[in-house]
Amino acid sequence: MSSASDVLLDVRDLKVSFRTEDGIVRAVDGVSFSLRRGEVLGIVGESGSGKSVSMMTVMRLIIDPNAIFEGEVIYKGRDLMKLSQDEMRRVRGSEISMIFQDPMTSLNPVYKVGWQIEEQLHAHERLSKRSARARSIELLKAVGIPNAESRIDDYPHQFSGGMRQRVMIAMGLSCNPDLLIADEPTTALDVTIQAQILELIKRLRREFDSAVVLITHDMGVVADIADRVVVMYAGRIVEQGQKSQVFYDPQHPYAWGLLGSIPRLDRERTHRLPTIPGQPPSMLAVPAGCRFRPRCPQAFDRCAVEDPPLLERAGDGHLDACLLPVEAKRERRDATIRPVPAKGPA
Amino acid sequence: MLTFVVRRLIGTILVVFAITVLVFLIFFHTPGIDPARQLAGRNPNPGTIKLIRHQYGLDRPLPVQYVILMKKLFITRDLASYSNQGELVVPSLVAAAPVTLSLVIGAAVIWVIAAIGMGLAAAVLRGTIWDPILMILALIGISMPVFWLGEMANLVIQSRYHDFFLFSWVPPLGYTPLTSDPWMWFKQLVVPWLVLSVLYIGLYARVLRNSLLESENEDFVRTARAKGITERRVLFRHMLRTSLITFVSLFGLDLGVLIGGGALLAEVVFGLPGVGFLTYHALTSLDLPVIMATVVYGAIFIVIASALVDVAYAYLDPRVRLA
Fold first, then answer.
1. How close does chain B come to A234, measured CA to CA in Å?
2. How high is the pLDDT of residue A271?
3. What pLDDT is stored for residue A46 in this prediction?
4. Is the CB of B227 less than 8 angstroms away from the CB of A92?
5. B84 has a pLDDT exceeding 70
6. Is-contact A250 A313, C-beta < 8 A?
7. Which of A65, A102, A123 sits opposite B228 (nearest CB)?
8. CA of B26, closest CA in chain A: separation in Å?
9. Cα of A238 to nearest chain B Cα, Å
């Protein structure tokens, strides 16, 4: 089903470390995943799990001189990590573009939004001022900004948060990228606006035919939009699979925890929403064996000594990094979180 | 933008009015002090005091006194100095203004260019040895008082090493109007410009470097990089552009203060007959009308400068225009 030419992005054993005064912090520790053309991949995890750092690394946007990178990021057959600054600049914004969490601060406050979109167009394409402006108006219309012809000359502070995120998306799509990375695009917005932005991303993805990597800590967002899901914990991928696999048959106890902590309308109300006890480990002192062990109610003796590799354990393309046998996992999981009865892939 | 300018202009007029009222009250109605006696200078004779009392309408109601003073300052401009044989104050102030303007504007051009260069260089070269070197140089510049540096410059250039080929072209201290001999004007002002700007170069370079480094962490700078524009463009169009907002607000205030008489030390050291020099002599001889006039004119310059800064600020930062 997936031939090699279908693969757009292939991240292989990516490691990102930062030299700090207290020692080396490995924020991303051996992350591998791939993405096909037009696919939507959701990367889920709590703050500090390395999801943003990995994608910022793919864009080569981490310019900290204390950062050390290892691994490969193969995009259309080229290793982005090996490109020169100038070659990478040409990829950024035209082939791969990125939108960020906080639309209130992500646009430059001193330039008109049209100017900011046109700047990106001019950086990658030879086109006249007039046609750049026409394209910008078109883009603003496409992302649903009313009166785009006059709004193009407004400054970011004249837009609401949701509208600014639409502008960011318009900018991200301005050069028809093959890959759009959205780093928590809805986190800073209120719920109704969140839904609109997700709807917009879904629609644009069809129109522009871009692949999307959506970084989020919100399982609801992933459920809404993703084709495949990667769950990250403490700098590693702990589970990866089709959305239906991860949602209806979660393998890793961390993923059960994430799913179990979502309030649900189709259940009787529980007294308290379940939570995952404890906190993620400090990246300076990662526990031996499985990194989730200190917080894992299912941990057993092997977990303390064996570092579980990410393997296909539960079936076709569904990878996880938990040492429990698959049957034991399903049994214990159903006893703890009672996952959604499988209605088949959504 | 236009409404902002108009609104700011009205504000400026109100502030100038408030300042003149304040100055009037301080000079004419400090309790226990007879303004006529003060205005008359040292050892006045009773006749002069009586004349002043009549001229300034000190026997009439307060608002009338204020109007008379303003008329003397701005309309008839016949405010006279009594300790200096009745010399008219306003014309001498008007004559001194071009000197101060020449000094301060020249120094400002130097310090803005040098500080932007130094601040940018330090920010770009962060992590190398050049950043701390530049910042230490800046600190040294800030630490050297202008009167000391000026005297040292005079000592070296005018006296000890004047015959050294590097300094032999420097003319004696003084001021030649730009209109009569531009080349001489330039030659006489070069050293004062440099000396006056040293402090500000240091200060502004440090301020600019810090705000550039802060802007490095701004989300919109990350966005700019993600857009795939060149690093040079990120630096100039995004980082420098937003950092200039702080820079400009600082600049306007310093410029206003210097033009309003703050360049006093540099003017005295270099024998430049500017507003500061005038104030200095008025202070040493307690020449009240001159002090009053320089205070009012100085305040007006500062207010105008800060209004110009606000307009520049609004130009640089569209968010300000609404406020």
1. 24
2. 63
3. 85
4. yes
5. no
6. no
7. A123
8. 43
9. 28
> For tokens 């070069």, what's the residue?
B190
Nearest CB partner across the interface for A93, out of B127, B228, B231: B228
Cβ of residue A168 closer than 8 Å to a chain B Cβ: yes
Model confidence at B48: pLDDT above 50: yes
Residues 6+ apart with CB under 8 A from A199: none
How do residues A3-47 score in pLDDT, each as one tens digit? Answer: 555 899 999 999 999 999 888 899 999 999 999 998 999 999 888
Which of chain B's residues have a Cβ under 8 Å away from the Cβ of A97? 226-227
Whole-angstrom distance, CA of residue B292 vs CA of residue B24? 9
- Residue count of chain A: 346
Nearest CA in chain B to A120: B227
Residue B113: helix, strand or coil by DSSP?
helix
Amino acid identity of residue A77, one-letter, is G
Mutation target among A91, A110, A179 for the B interface, most CBs of B within 10 A? A110
Instruction: Look at phi and psi of residue A76 and say left if phi exceeds 0, alpha if psi is from -120 to 50, else beta.
Output: left
- What is the pLDDT at residue A1? 44
Q: Among A10-24, A99-113, B281-295, where is mean pLDDT lowest?
A: B281-295
β A179-183/A96-99 pair status: parallel
Q: How far apart are the first and last CA of chain B?
A: 11
Whole-angstrom Cα distance, residue A172 to residue B85?
A: 75
Q: Do A109 and B127 make contact, defined as CB atoms within 8 angstroms?
A: no
Q: Which two tokens stand for residue B21?
A: 């009222």
Beta bridge partners, A24, equal A19
Residue B117, min C-alpha distance to chain A (Å): 22
Scan residues 139-158 of A and list those with Cβ closer than 8 Å to B: 155, 157
Q: What are phi and psi of A271, to 5 degrees?
A: -65, -50
With contact defined as beta carbons under 8 Å apart, do A79 and A71 qualify?
no
The owner of tokens 């991949």 is A41
What are the pLDDT digits (tens) for A42-97? 999 888 888 999 999 999 999 888 899 999 999 999 999 999 999 999 999 999 99
Token pair 């140089």 is at which residue?
B137
How many pairs of residues across A and B have Cβ atoms under 8 Å apart?
A: 76
